[in-house]
Amino acid sequence: MSIVVGSTYFGYRYFSSNYFSANNIKNKTLLKTVDVLQGELATAEAYLDSMVELNNTIRLYADLPQHDLSIENLGVGGRVQMANPEASNNIVEELNADIEFLSTKVAIELENYKNLYTDIQKYRSRLEYIPAITPLDANSYFISSNYGYRVDPFTEIRKYHAGIDLAANRGTHVYASGKGKVIYAAYSYGGYGNLVKIDHGDGLVSFYGHLNKIKVSKGEIVERGKFIGEVGNTGRSTGPHLHYEIQKDGKPVNPVKYMWDDKPL
Fold first, then answer.
1. What is the pTM for the complete model shown?
2. Alpha-helix runs per DSSP H in the chain
3. Confidence class of residue 59 from pLDDT cuts 50, 70 and 90?
4. pLDDT mean over 133-160
5. Where are the alpha helices (DSSP H) in 123-259?
């Protein structure tokens, strides 16, 4: 009896040790595979994020509403609710949950691109009105003052600057940044000097200030790229430059966001 019991015990120890060793080997292989998959998953997510950014860039160019692919807008709970690491040690379950979550994001983004295509088709005729190009040739200027708060060159007091100043030689050609109707083409006593304002519709108006000469008339319909004036030093100005401003619904916005053809700033 002692011999039988002893043989059974040591046999169990032998086989169980072999079994767990085999499992350890399998687990190490599984972990390496999971690491690779997690890396590929992270790459896929980064690519998806870039697609979301591109979608919104196109929407901004087309003056269409932006969209957000954040968790709260997905209609699902996100990774925490789908697989809580504290509630489960199963790494495969967690990986599956991540894949399902990414699949949901991809499905929603594909739908967003379908909607974008539909919107672009619908608003295609509207695109030519968006002020989407830089009003000066890229190699003819430098930015002497940015949009936002700055120290006023006359009073040396920090004030809000509603546009950007593009310093260039006097006489440099100024072009309409989008199709629209000229609603102002005269001297402005508000500090702009010789000023052209173009109404692009949907609340978008572009301003071209401190011009040396004005080459368009009020009421004229101009195409994008139309020669509308020359850089000057009129009005409240310290040197030849173009004050370029865009207003949306009567409020200034950063015009750089609309300068899609421009050199990097």
1. 0.55
2. 2-61, 79-82, 91-122, 124-127
3. confident
4. 80
5. 124-127
Tell me the sheet residues that pair with 205: 199, 247
Longest dimension (CA), the chain: 116
Give the residue extent of every domain in the chain: 2-127, 138-258
Instruction: Dig out the tokens for 260 from the structure.
Output: 């899609």
Question: What is the spatial distance between Cα 211 and Cα 235, in angstroms, rounded to a whole number?
Answer: 9
CA–CA gap between residue 14 and residue 17 (Å, rounded): 5
- 109: number of Cβ within 10 Å: 17
Residues 138-258, CATH architecture? Distorted Sandwich (2.70)
What is the C-alpha to C-alpha distance for residues 141 and 168, in angstroms, rounded to an integer? 5
| φ, ψ at 201 (rounded to 5°) | 85, 165
Contact call for residues 202 and 130 (beta carbons, < 8 A): no
